[in-house]
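Data deposition worksheet. Section B asks for the primary sequence of the deposited chain exactly as it was used as input, without tags or linkers unless they were present during the calculation. Section C holds the resulting structure in token form. Section D is free text for depositor observations; keep each observation to a single sentence. Incomplete worksheets are returned to the depositor.
Section A, Depositor: J.P.
Section B:
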Amino acid sequence: MVSYLRRKAAAKILDVLYQGSKSRSHFDEVALSSQLKVAQVNKKSDPQKPQLLLPYEKDSAIPENLGQKFSEDDIIESIYPDKDGLSIRIREEVFNKTVLEAVLQDGPEYGLHSDVHQFTSIAGEATPLPQGESVVVEYSSPNVAKQFHVGHMRSTIIGNFVANINQALGHKVVRLNYLGDWGAQFGVLGVGLEKYGSQENLEAGTTCIEHLYEVYVKINDELERLKTIDPEKHSALQNETREFQKRMEEGDEKALSTWRKCRKDSIEEFTKVYSRLGVVFDEYHGESMYYEKAKDIIEELKRKGLLQCEKDTGALFLDLSEEGNDKRKKIVTLQRSDGTTLYISRDLAAIIHRQEKYNFDRIHYVVENGQHDHFKTLVQILKRMDYPWANRSIDEFHIKFGRIHGMSTRKGQVVYLSDVLNEAKEQVIEILKTTATTKPLDNLEETADILGISGIILRDLQEIRKRDYKFTWERALNFHSDSGIFLQYAHARMCSLERNCGVSLSTDVDFSCLKEPEALRLIQHLARFDHAIHNSFTHLEASTIVKFLFNLGHLINAANHKLQVKNQAMDLAQARLLMFHCSRTVLANGMRLLGIKPLDRM
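Section C:
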């Protein structure tokens, strides 16, 4: 294991620090090991530089003159002080052997069982990290009775990654899809169906969702039209929509049967999109689960003396205004004058129910930046209600992200996610058919679909999560530079190498054969995978792993161009093949964390 090298280096450092004192423990060794970093590499790095670094940190107990007290041994060639910390050079053959054998041994779990996942550094001290936590991740959350809009795409892609990396690191994850299936919009839709609905279209499969959306647009257009030309009729129509919602909350069977049909058909359509993306959920919840529970929360707030009543309307609200000289008014309505609940009321009921059901250590809402105030309000109310598990950073609750600009099909149409995925597949098919080096594929449609989806997912995750970004098809579907398709090509090329090189994979190789700069850089980068995972997990930032994989793809290509396997001496060919096999394993591991299915052929 790579941790073995870190622990050897840590033990040597501790031997000098403690000077043979028996007070040193295994905990000290593992804790210090977790702080040792593998140096970054690129295609131009000097491969003879030290592979490990112990950074100097403020208030660190590691003296800067420590490097003067070391002697080399059969594993460690040298330890010496550098401007950034203690530089540690591991003997080349030992380093290569240890890294590649670790990849072989751990396979799909390589990078997940490292010391770096057990500790974090706070003020120069190693602090244990929680292990095996219960984690709820709420993501995607499309609106029922509407086609899956690209506005929910980022939540789906980022949320899937957040769930994947937590699960990979041993946390117990509940993947939750919280559907927008209740509230004022259903009052509007219900009245729209009474006025404009077609029973034939409602029973026509995919057409059903299209029809629901057409009706929703039509009734909203009518509300807008009346607002301008006939305020009295506008007010009457609005009252009808509120009355329909109230009928739903009071259990009116006719209103609820319409709602059930909309919900069922919508979920069936959503699952088709999720299946293409490779996204699965443990549970589907919805606002509809909580309109009754929301009333219980209202009663609890009343008992705690936190609610006030608006004199003119009778609506119930909570005053979250700040105190002191900078007092800012913040009034949060939790129940309307007609007794119906609001989104914030139902969200309160939902999070309290989830704590009771899952006893979570963490809950993450993967929702765009614009909803940050909503989650701040949610946490403020929970703290007022004296729930101790709410006493944590708002950034832990709300995993926020920026918006996508410029995403459309070539026809310039608005964007439903299925249209975007279809467009990606069609463009990839065109590229594959017109590329002279592309061999005919038996499963062209399936391969093109996976490549197109890979391009879209990677284009999204390569951006820093909180930032907006501009989408272009040229960048998303680029076969030659940093993209999802670039990674797929690197993976497929390594699979092809293993199939066609004429050498069988062996684990008993001469590691001293791996001495070229391209090989040394590639192996050192493989050793950095656990740190990439750790840093990505710490900030729930997928772009860290994406950056690691792009660099890995370039290092694989550079090594593959220079270091031939076919027609080489057997000991050299076997060593190189093992290195490329391990590189493919790590590449595939990273792609799966991001939610991408690696292709063996393309």
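Section D:
Residues 253-277 form the longest helix (25 residues).
The chain has a mean pLDDT of 89.
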